[in-house]
Amino acid sequence: MYKIKILKGYKKQYRKLSKDNQMLVDTIVEKLANDQPLEEKYRDHKLKGEYKDFRECHIKPNLLLTYQREEDFLILTCVSLGSHSDLFG
């Protein structure tokens, strides 16, 4: 199981979500922390360019989770939540 590290910006974005969306995010983060594969519908994928060390999954069409796994330390870093335009301009 990965230890979960939450960044400050993520916490702020998380608090803005509805309770239903928070529960959905919690379920996805728990799966990631337990190294369980996500269903295809979440479109989990590695990012490119300056974000090449990160992954992203589509929790809902306009709700994305950006995260990073640090294999050496078994840490799942939850980086950000939001839409594509929120996260990447």
TrEMBL record:
Keywords attached to this entry: Toxin-antitoxin system
Protein name per UniProt: Type II toxin-antitoxin system YafQ family toxin
UniProt GO molecular function: RNA endonuclease activity
Pfam family, one: YafQ_toxin
Keyword match Nucleus: no
InterPro entries: RelE/ParE_toxin, RelE/ParE_toxin_dom_sf, Toxin_YafQ-like
Organism superkingdom: Bacteria
BP terms from Gene Ontology: mRNA catabolic process; translational termination
Active site: 84
NCBIfam families tied to this protein: RelE_StbE (TIGR02385)
